[in-house]
Amino acid sequence: ANFFWNDTDNRLFIGNNATVTGTLNSQVQITALSSVYFSLNTFSASTSGPVLVFNKSRGVTTTSFTIVNANDILGELDFYGSDNTDFSLAAYIQVLAGGVPAANDIPGIMSFIVNVGNPYSAREIFRIAGSAFTINEDSNDVDFRVEGAADANLFTLDAGLDQVGIGRVPAAKL
Question: Which pTM value belongs to this model?
Answer without folding.
Answer: 0.76
